[in-house]
Fold this sequence. Notes:
This protein has helices spanning 2-15, 53-186, 191-213, 215-244, 248-253, 255-274, 278-283, 288-300, 323-332, 342-345, and strands at residues 350-351, 361-364, 374-378, 383-387, 393-397, 404-409. It is α+β, with helices and mostly antiparallel strands. Mean pLDDT is 76; it is low at 246-287.
Amino acid sequence: QAARARAAAAAIVEKAPKPSPEDAEPVPVEEPEPIPEVQVSQVKRAKVPRADLQSEQAAAEREAAAQAAAERAQRLAEQRAAERQAARKAAEQAAEQAAAERQAARLARQEARQEAERQAELAAQRAAERQAAREEAEREAERAARRAAIEEAAAEQAAAEREAARLAAERRAEERAAERAEASASASAAASEQAAAEQAAERRAEKRAEARQEARAAEASASASAAASEQAAERTEASASASASAPSSQDSGRGGGGRSNGAQASSSASATASASAPASRSRGGGGVGSYGDDVLAVAQEHLGTPYRLSPPGPCVAFEAEDCSCFTMLVFQEFGIALPDSPGAQMGYGTPVHGAPQAGDLLFWSEDNSGYITHVGIAMGDGTTIHAQIGSEVTVTSINYINGYVGARRLL
């Protein structure tokens, strides 16, 4: 019977369900106090006489009670073991969670340090950029100040050169006026022819003024002036021929006077011929100096005309002129039709070797590319009259403009 009781107790223990971690009640993280284990080593069978039924019944009851106690002890032991297992798992989970939290805290601190370092680097970079921007602004301000000083000095120099050129032009005009007065005094013997020449000159001046407003009227007036000049020249030649055919006695008695009158007549004829059409006046006036003075006289009438690029804008005399428009209008007065382009005007006339003379066309390649970008008229003293970009028709030094290429002579 004791063996059967032990077998039954073992079967009950094996069939008893084991508690799962989910069914275990939560326990605190602290390690629980050790629970004494209760083990059933053996059930002692009381020695009773076989013949005593009451003793056997009492033994069976005792055995049943022992078996029940063993079962209770086994269940208690299993429950305590389950509790310890649950406590260990809870402690392990708590330890893992604490380790994870510590790891997360370490990662958070590391990320915070890295972010702080990045922010510090960005701040340093921004500070360096601001410092570089300030330094660049200071350098730009210094460059602007230097450029302003250079431009101011250049403007002052240009103003001084323009003033000097204006004074030189006035002196040349005064000299030309004195020369013309002297020529008028030397031609007093041919008063009638001189008067006709002066009238023709006045008519030509009037015709030039009219030509600025209406080209056709100017051409008609120029033709009429040329015809009148030719008639005056014919009359002068007839008078000279009559004087040459005088009697020999008069020629011998007044030979010197006759020759003088003849010379005066020739001079008068030359003056009348030179007062004809502008182109013939320029070529028959006695060399570069005479036609150059005539060219400069016409060119100086344009002083102060505002600069305006053409094309695309129109070329309007005394209102809007660029460099090639200005030279085109000047040489138009002498019967020379130039195109409104500096590069195209370079193909007219003949090259000038040596220093340019008054009336020569001057050419520049301002960007030193070889392409002609500017044109003006030489004054004969190292200066030029030209339509200055962004300004007006003025007089400056030839070297004031960069990229001088050469000169061409048209007359």
